[in-house]
UniProtKB/TrEMBL annotation, chain A:
MF (Gene Ontology): electron transfer activity; flavin adenine dinucleotide binding
Gene3D superfamilies listed in its UniProt record: HUPs (3.40.50.620), TPP-binding domain (3.40.50.1220)
CDD domains: ETF_alpha
Lineage of producing organism: Archaea, Methanobacteriati, Methanobacteriota, Stenosarchaea group, Halobacteria
GO terms for biological process, alphabetical: fatty acid beta-oxidation using acyl-CoA dehydrogenase
Species: Halodesulfurarchaeum formicicum
Protein family membership: Belongs to the ETF alpha-subunit/FixB family.
Protein's UniProt name: Electron transfer flavoprotein alpha subunit
From TrEMBL, chain B:
Originating organism: Halodesulfurarchaeum formicicum
Annotated protein name in UniProt: Electron transfer flavoprotein beta subunit
UniProt family annotation: Belongs to the ETF beta-subunit/FixA family.
Positions of the UniProt region annotated as Disordered: 218-245
Pfam families: ETF
Domain Electron transfer flavoprotein alpha/beta-subunit N-terminal span(s) in chain numbering: 21-217
Alphabetical keyword list: Electron transport, Transport
Basic and acidic residues bias: start-end ranges: 218-238
Highest taxon listed in the record's lineage: Archaea
Encoding gene (name): fixA
Gene Ontology molecular function terms on file: electron transfer activity
Xref: InterPro entries: ETF_a/b_N (IPR014730), ETF_b (IPR012255), ETF_beta_N (IPR033948), Rossmann-like_a/b/a_fold (IPR014729)
Length: 318, 264
């Protein structure tokens, strides 16, 4: 029991990038455990996807061609069957919305401990030691799994993408799917509308977050945007409040942006927000909280009150 | 029909905290309702107001302190509240999400709701797994990261809209009973009224211990151990701008000009 089983993710025929990060992390972990890395792809065009999984560090690719898209009941059964056949020491999945929808069920079925949203993992004598964020990533904690095997989900963006191309054996994994246990039916997908503005096209984006307090205070940001000809984007809570159209939401469930400058004002820097701004050339952050995680990725950090700093900036640039 | 809402009290660290001996002292922690659970509660209370549900019950795993938070939930419209606690839950057992599910499952079985609503995640530890673990422990259906749902009592099903990454939503039908983990933005959570808060003060909270729920000591053996807490390492090349607001503004202006997004 020293192998690693990594279950990749794909959507609408495309392998998602996090899957290659999973392989990178899985290969390291398998090496530390002195075991093999088994990669599984479930559903969709498994042959085409398996081609893309053919990376350094992978020992075997297992394909299970059941259904076109993700269905949590199928995934739970498939991973369970694979687990029972391969008996890995660790099951890895990316910490994504779909993983949130099936991985905990796998852990319950197999009675395995589960650690999610992990940013680092290593093998120690005490067990598998993971690192995860606490209190909205202001603090980090280690969580050691004292029992092996276990299930771990990895935070996207924390590992490099596995490179290289090798010739890994691809094996079609056969198992009898229990149709009566498939009690959920995915009926389709919808894409959020185009919205009022394209934040992905802006060179200078001002991202505004909950630090703004009230809707009326947005004038502080609007004044700066007018003077500098910037485009305004927002963190999720402001969109949830109905202050902005969803097309202006930046982050995991919103838009991924890559402006020359992203000025984050009153945004804490939650992982789901940061997921959308990593492509920015320069990140400037204004926040009253010196521990705000946005400062960990900012190029320029201003610990200060936006209501003092931003109007002053507007005046200076006017 | 009855709806059960799992409700967590979460901790946030104050702006100026310190880590002492690998832990955050209690004086730097502020406790509050979990934001995601507030949306779940609002969804449940609205269904009762629409006459679709008759009763909304909350269940919380938490020490005595969490009674304040639970009263907030009552003030926001929950009918009854159950709190699970025992000395044997101090320390590491709750790090394991399946233990939380094992504690809540007997409550759900006794209450027999049609729907359990949970928040997508807890703001403090962010495991994001309690709702789905609970569903599976019960042998129920579930949907994670739900931003809209419609019940079909005749078909005994619920149609959910799951929010995937990048603005894509999935439409799925699940059979009832089910557990849904609720995403923010699904509704507009109400504030607790003063009157509601006063009334909540008088309400009984039903406290149950693991033993009363039939969860034995062996089930509470920790499989996960939380180690020391540390501050995240800084990326290192972040330039911190000192000075008063005008000086800070000048530094931003210079950076904007240097980056070419603003002309001098
Ligand atoms: C599945 C999932 C998907 C998600 N998708 C997204 C997404 O796409 N985009 C997104 O943004 N979030 C997303 N979230 C939500 C995310 O977890 C956070 O809740 C959100 O990003 C927080 O927004 P915020 O930083 O504006 O608010 P908060 O976290 O409340 O931060 C406000 C900040 O303002 C600061 N502040 C307060 N007053 C001032 C002042 N006067 N001057 C300066 N600073 C001040 C505070 O110190 C704090 O750091 C998602 C969550 C989940 C679970």
């Amino acid at each position: 029991m020293s192998d690693v089983l990594a279950v990749v993710e794909h959507r609408r025929g495309e392998l998602r990038d996090v899957s290659l990060e999973l392989i990178e992390a899985g290969a390291d972990l398998a090496a530390e455990l002195d075991g093999e890395l088994h990669v599984a792809v479930i559903g969709g065009n498994v042959e085409a996807i398996a081609d893309r999984l053919n990376r350094d560090g992978v020992d075997v690719i297992h394909t299970i061609a059941d259904g076109a898209e993700f269905n949590h009941d199928v995934y739970v059964q498939a991973v369970r069957a694979l687990y029972e056949t391969l008996e890995p020491a660790v099951v890895l999945a990316p910490h994504t919305v779909n993983a949130l929808d099936y991985v905990p069920a796998v852990a319950v079925d197999l009675d395995l401990p589960l650690v999610t949203d992990v940013i680092d993992v290593e093998v120690t004598e005490a067990g598998l030691r993971t690192t995860r964020g606490l209190y909205e990533s202001k603090i980090e904690a280690t969580v050691t799994v004292t029992e092996r095997p276990c299930v771990v989900t990895l935070r996207p963006g924390e590992w490099a993408r596995a490179g290289g191309v090798s010739s890994v054996p691809v094996e079609a994994f056969e198992f009898e799917i229990e149709e009566s246990a498939v009690d959920s039916h995915v009926e389709g997908f919808e894409e959020a509308g185009a919205g009022d503005v394209d934040v992905t096209a802006a060179d200078f984006l001002i991202g505004v977050g909950r630090g703004i307090g009230e809707e009326a205070n947005l004038s502080v940001i609007e004044d700066l945007a007018e003077v500098t000809d910037a485009t305004i984007a927002a963190s999720r809570p402001l969109v949830d409040n109905g202050w902005f159209d969803t097309s202006r939401q930046v982050g995991q469930s919103g838009k991924t942006v890559s402006p020359d400058v992203y000025l984050a004002v009153g945004i804490s820097g939650a992982v789901q927000h940061v997921a959308g701004i990593k492509g920015a050339n320069t990140i400037i952050a204004v926040n009253t909280d010196p521990h705000a995680p946005i400062f960990d990725i900012a190029d320029q950090a201003i610990v200060g009150d936006l209501f003092e700093v931003i109007p002053e900036l507007t005046d200076q640039l006017r | 029909m009855k709806i059960l809402v799992t409700f967590a009290e979460v901790a946030a660290v104050a702006d100026n905290f310190e880590i002492e001996d690998g832990a955050v002292a209690d004086r730097y922690l502020e406790y509050d309702l979990n934001e995601w659970d507030e949306y779940a509660l609002e969804a449940a209370v609205s269904l009762r107001e629409e006459g679709i549900a008759e009763e909304v019950v909350t269940v919380t795993i938490g020490p005595e302190r969490s009674a304040d938070t639970i009263r907030m939930a009552l003030a926001k419209g929950a009918d009854r509240a159950i709190r699970i606690w025992g000395d044997d839950l101090e320390g590491d057992p709750l790090e394991d999400v399946s233990t939380r599910a094992a504690l809540m499952a007997p409550v759900v079985e006794a209450e027999a709701p049609t729907l359990v609503l949970s928040g997508v995640q807890a703001a403090d530890d962010g495991y994001g797994s309690t709702g789905v673990s609970l569903a599976r422990t019960l042998g129920w259906q579930w949907g994670a990261v739900v931003n809209d749902f419609t019940l079909d009592r005749e078909a005994d099903s619920v149609r959910v809209r799951r929010e995937l990454e990048g603005g894509i939503e999935e439409l799925t039908t699940l059979s009832l009973p089910a557990v849904l983990t609720i995403q923010t933005g699904i509704n507009d959570p109400r504030y607790a009224s003063l009157r509601g808060l006063q009334e909540a003060q008088k309400q009984e909270i039903d406290v149950q211990t693991p033993a009363e729920l039939g969860v034995g000591a062996d089930r509470l053996e920790p499989r996960l151990e939380r180690g020391e807490l540390t501050e995240p390492p800084s990326r290192g090349d972040t330039e911190y701008v000192e000075g008063d607001p005008p000086e800070q503004a000048t530094a931003i202006a210079e950076q904007l000009i240097e980056s070419g997004v603003v002309q001098e």
